[in-house]
Amino acid sequence: MSLIKFITSKTFLKQVLLALVAVFVLCFIMLQWLKSSTNHGDFETVPNLTGKSISVANIELKENKLVMQIQDSANFNPDYPKFSVIEQEPPAGTKVKENRKIYLTLNPSGYRKIQVPNLKERTFRQAKPMLEALGFQVGKIIYENNIGKDLVLKMRHKGKTIKEGDKLAKTSKIDLVLGNGERP
Hints:
This is PASTA domain-containing protein. Keywords: Membrane, Transmembrane, Transmembrane helix. Pfam families: PASTA (PF03793). This protein is an alpha+beta fold. The chain is about 30% helix and about 25% strand. The strands form four sheets. It has a four-stranded mixed sheet with strand order 7-11-8-9, covered by helices on one side. The longest helix has 28 residues, at about 10-35. The chain is elongated.
């Protein structure tokens, strides 16, 4: 029997047709199984958790069948209460599957503490940018009799003298005692 006769025979065509029907039926069954096992078309909407406390965020996520995953936060934001959500991923309004992890970034309890640099015997012109680069604010400028004009003699915070290595919260105001250029 030649190859052309075999390909055009009724037996071969029946086998090919049966194979195509079997593939179609298996694909249909597989797609229906996937649809039911992956909850195709069933979504949960991510709520807006920004500014809410951890406990409120946890309750809202449980109501929406979502899971909370807390990420650490190093930057204090004074616009939000302590330990409240300042960011979330995925964002509010996003459609996700149930039991999806929602990553939350929390606002810490306050600004982190930073070491005070050594500013003694530096000019005000040098000291001010150093303080501002570290996140401190320059408070009051107080002049005392000293031959070094605008030379930093002391540093104070809330009336107390501070020295190099002391730790203060970021954005703290540091008062500087400077020389006025006159002999004591």
